[in-house]
Design goal:
The protein is mainly alpha-helical. It contains 19 helices and no strands.
Length: 418
């Protein structure tokens, strides 16, 4: 799709699509993050330790990342909105059924299947935004989309914590499932008249996966993919255990833990409302560098300073730091292959969630049975700081990594060349 063929940012279709995609992103984010404050409760119910219960995170994030590799090309060839509508239906049903899981193994399996369905929604949404917004306005559009993601983070952690004291985790999954069914209905009705221009031949074959190899064979896209993998391993590998850490160290009630963890979403919401100013003030490299430093500082404070009162403000800054670096990487990913944008963004998301799954498992082993929180958060923080330095230094070498080019090109040499 050439820039001349792109609808105006102010056009009705672009505005409606962002609102609809935001609704889907909201519930998916709320669903995946609700687990974090509930891990101690689920571990206790199924008579296991926190590290073993933490495999629920891995069971969701690994398929979530893996199936990006299918949904990306499939969305490019069959239409992104069509694939997202079907995925939303399966996601709604899978989330509701989690409420009836009789064992931890069955819950792991159900979360695996839910992750398979959820995999289509946020990455294809970002690719759809990339198709409909020129690059110079895209980070602001993604910032608007991330408002829904941030709100989902706020709801998930706060409701998860409150549910730990007042409701059951099963009721929370049932509630999310019912809300998801409603969003699916609205999504299906509203997108029937919208077109995202799938490829004319509509064929989906093994050749559809060729752009993955082309992307990974070049230095600049490989840099973005590796960076987001590292981010997934260390940022979310540590983040998965913040709720259990607050319970173990400070013995806070679950409702308080949930509300405190909601600060991460508040930080993301602040970023989404100030993204235009932040980009003008710091530039993309500045956002990644300072985002890495801020994430590092916050994790070190959490690990080394014994104050739950301080954690409230630190968690907000942690959310801000994360979105500063991650949203910039997301924006770069939408321009890696303008002619196969769903494929490129899906590879980006696959790398992120593969990292999250591995990070939750590996750092879960470090945490063990409530004894390794301090080294876990130190590792996470130092790694994020080093990531910010590394990605900025490498990006300066490949300064044309996000230079907009002819969007009809399947894999654009100016974007991924040496």
């Amino acid at each position: 799709m050439s820039e001349s063929a792109m609808p105006s940012v102010s056009g009705q279709a672009a505005r409606v699509s962002v609102s609809l995609l935001g609704a889907a992103a909201f519930i998916v984010t709320a669903d995946v993050r609700v687990i974090n404050p509930l891990l101690p409760i689920i571990a206790r119910e199924f008579h296991t330790d926190i590290g073993s219960a933490g495999f629920i995170v891995t069971a969701y994030t690994i398929p979530y990342g893996l199936f990006q590799l299918i949904y990306g090309p499939l969305g490019d060839y069959m239409g992104k909105l069509r694939i997202m509508t079907l995925a939303m239906a399966f996601f709604a049903v899978g989330t509701a059924i989690c409420a009836a899981a009789p064992s931890l193994v069955i819950l792991d399996l159900l979360r695996f299947l839910t992750g398979v369905a959820a995999a289509a929604l946020i990455p294809l949404s970002l690719a759809y935004i990339g198709d409909n917004f020129p690059y110079e306005q895209r980070q602001a559009a993604i910032g608007q989309f991330l408002t829904a993601v941030a709100l989902g983070n706020i709801l998930s952690t706060s409701l998860g914590g409150i549910g730990g004291d007042v409701l059951s985790w099963r009721l929370i999954f049932l509630l999310y499932g019912l809300v998801s069914i409603g969003i699916f209905g609205a999504f299906w009705l509203a997108t029937r008249g919208l077109s995202d221009q799938p490829k004319p031949d509509g064929k989906f074959t093994l050749a559809s996966f060729k752009p993955f190899g082309q992307l990974l064979s070049k230095s600049a896209p490989r840099l973005v993919i590796i960076a987001v993998f590292i981010e997934g391993v260390f940022f979310f590998g540590g983040f998965a255990y913040l709720g259990s850490f607050l319970k173990h160290r400070y013995d806070l009630p679950y409702w308080a833990i949930g509300l405190m963890l909601a600060g991460f979403g508040i930080g993301g919401l602040f970023y989404s409302r100030t993204v235009k100013w932040l980009v003008r003030r710091f530039g993309e490299n500045g956002l990644m560098l300072y985002g890495g430093f801020l994430s590092c500082l916050c994790y070190l404070i959490i690990a080394l300073v014994g104050s739950w009162e301080l954690f409230i403000g630190v968690d907000i800054l942690l959310g801000l730091g994360y979105y500063m670096i991650h949203s910039t990487l997301q924006t770069k990913a939408t321009e890696l292959s303008p002619g196969a944008r769903g494929t490129a963004v899906s590879l980006f998301a696959f790398s992120l969630f593969l990292g999250q799954g591995i990070g939750a498992a590996v750092l879960g082993a470090v945490v063990g049975d409530d004894v390794g929180y301090t080294p876990t958060f130190i590792i996470s923080g130092v790694a994020m700081g080093l990531l910010g330095i590394w990605i900025v230094n490498r990006t300066r070498r490949y300064a044309n990594i996000v230079k907009p080019t002819d969007a009809t090109s399947e894999i654009t040499p100016a974007l991924i060349g040496e």
